[in-house]
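User: Show me a protein chain along with its predicted structure.
Assistant: Here is one chain, sequence first, then structure tokens.
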Amino acid sequence: MSDEAYAAIVGATGNIEWKTLEPHFARGDLLVVAPELDLVEVAAAMMEDDSEQIKIWMDGQHLRVATDAQAGDWAERDPDSLWAVVIRPWVLVQERGDR
């Protein structure tokens, strides 16, 4: 990935409230990125259509469609540690801990 592409993804990534993500969850286009992955790296792989790497992450449950349980947890806790980026048609979200 070029430095420009990386910078563009970083620039499009930001902190977000759960209520803003809820409509994307309802449409089924919210993907959860595991905390151990780099959100920008996952977004880049999706932009580049790196289906092999995406499959590896999905098979390992490191990248998955948001579940009802996850949505319920976020709705209840309303965490301020959610970061998201749009890679159409998907919205990638990651809950970040202390970094």
